[in-house]
Design goal:
This protein is of the alpha/beta class. The protein folds into two domains: 190 residues, Alpha-Beta Complex (Quinone Oxidoreductase, Chain A, domain 1); 136 residues, NAD(P)-binding Rossmann-like Domain (Rossmann fold), CATH 3.40.50. 29% of the residues lie in helices and 24% in strands. α3 packs across α9. The longest helix has 14 residues.
C-alpha cells in the first residue's frame, strides 16, 4: 500500500521532511478494523511527533503519522462486534500504532465511531480527535454535567483552534455556561462567534482583556493553546475552588503553588490515554464518537472543517504542516485522498 511518512525529524521546508513509500497492507488483529482511508485531518500532535520522533538518528523504517481519519471498513478481526465490512467510520487512532497517512490503517474497534451520515468524508475526518479531546475535557476531567452551568462562566483559551471550535459548540449546545473564547484576529473572532461564543477576548494581555469585558474571575478554564504562556493568567482568573483543564504540555515547570490558596484544581487531558494504556473504559471513546455523530446528524453541532487539500503525497503534507506550525490555522485542515 502507498503511504507518506518520515525517516528523520527535519524542518518542514526540507526536501525529505516527508517521503512517499510503499509497504505491506496490514492484517487486522482480533479487535481491529482495517480501514480504507478516504480523508484525514491534521492536528498539532502531527507536527509535534514529526519534530521529535527521529531527532538523533534516521529510522530504519518510515514512521506513518496521522491521527484523524474517515474511511470504509475493508476487513474486521474475528472478535469485532461493533462494525461490519463496508461500513463508513471515523476515528482518531492510537499514538503507538502506524497512523492514517496511508491507503489503509488498523484501528481498535473500541475507539471508532460510525461516520455521521450527513457529512462527507472530509467533513467527518475533521471531527474525531478534537471532539474526543473536548468531550473528555468538559464532561470527564472537569466533571461538568449536561444542562448545568447557569450563571457560570467558562474561559476557552484558543477558541478558534480545532479543539476550541468543537469545545465551544458542546458547551453552548449541551450546557448553560456563558462561554468566553480567546481570539486575536478578525477572522478568528468571527469564527468563534459562529461556533457560539458569547464573549470574545484577545489572548494577548489576557487579564486586562478579561477585566475590560467585566470578568475578574471565571468558574472554569479550558486551555487549548499555550500552558506556559497563560499559566499566571489562569491562576489569577480562576475562582476559588475552580477548575482548569489543559491539553498542551509545558516546556518549563509551572508553579502549582499559585493555585493552593484558592484550592483550585488542575487537570491534564490526553485523548490517547485510554488506547495507550488499554484502560478498562477504552470503549467509552466509541460511545463518545457515536454521540458526536448523533449531534452532527441532528445539526445540533456542525463540523469544524475549514480547508481541504488534495492528495496522499509529501507535498500536500508539507503544505498543511507548514500551516499548522504557523499558529494561524482556523478550525481543521483536511486532506482528501
Amino acid at each position: 500500500m502507498k503511504a507518506v511518512g518520515i525517516k528523520k525529524s527535519l524542518p518542514i521546508n526540507h526536501s525529505e521532511s516527508f517521503i512517499e513509500f510503499n509497504t505491506t497492507e496490514p492484517k487486522p488483529g482480533s479487535s481491529d478494523l482495517l480501514v480504507r482511508i478516504k480523508a484525514i485531518s491534521v492536528n498539532p500532535v502531527d507536527y509535534k511527533v514529526r519534530q521529535q520522533a527521529a531527532i538523533d538518528k534516521e529510522l530504519d523504517e518510515p514512521k506513518i503519522l496521522g491521527w484523524d481519519a474517515a474511511g470504509i471498513v475493508e476487513q474486521v478481526g474475528n472478535q469485532v462486534t461493533k462494525f461490519k465490512q463496508g461500513e463508513k467510520v471515523y476515528y482518531s487512532g492510537e499514538i503507538d500504532r502506524p497512523g492514517s497517512n496511508a491507503e489503509f490503517q488498523l484501528v481498535n474497534e473500541n475507539i471508532v465511531g460510525h461516520k455521521p451520515k450527513n457529512l462527507s468524508f472530509a467533513e467527518a475526518a475533521a471531527m474525531p480527535l478534537t471532539s474526543l479531546t473536548a468531550w473528555e475535557c468538559i464532561f470527564e476531567r472537569l466533571k461538568i454535567e449536561e444542562n448545568s452551568g447557569e450563571n457560570q462562566n467558562i474561559l476557552v483559551i484558543g477558541g478558534a483552534g480545532g479543539v476550541g471550535s468543537i469545545g465551544t459548540q458542546l458547551l453552548k449546545k449541551l450546557t448553560r455556561f456563558n462561554v468566553i473564547a480567546t481570539a486575536s484576529r478578525n477572522e478568528t473572532e468571527e469564527w468563534c462567534r459562529n461556533m457560539g461564543a458569547d464573549v470574545i477576548v484577545n489572548h494577548k494581555n489576557l487579564q486586562d482583556e478579561m477585566k475590560s469585558k467585566g470578568y475578574e474571575e471565571v468558574d472554569y478554564i479550558l486551555n487549548f493553546s499555550d500552558t506556559d504562556l497563560h499559566w499566571d493568567s489562569m491562576a489569577e482568573l480562576i475562582k476559588p475552588q475552580g477548575n482548569i483543564c489543559s491539553i498542551v504540555e509545558t516546556k518549563n515547570p509551572v508553579d502549582l503553588n499559585k493555585l493552593k490558596n484558592k484550592s483550585a484544581s488542575f487537570h491534564w487531558e490526553l485523548m490517547f490515554t485510554r488506547a495507550k494504556y488499554q484502560t478498562p473504559d477504552m470503549h467509552k471513546q466509541h460511545e463518545i464518537l457515536e454521540r458526536i455523530s448523533e449531534l452532527l446528524e441532528e445539526e445540533i453541532i456542525q463540523t469544524t472543517h475549514y480547508r481541504t487539500f488534495i492528495g496522499l503525497m509529501p507535498e500536500t503534507f508539507k503544505e498543511v504542516h507548514s500551516l499548522q506550525e504557523s499558529g494561524k490555522s482556523i478550525g481543521k485542515n483536511v486532506i482528501l485522498f
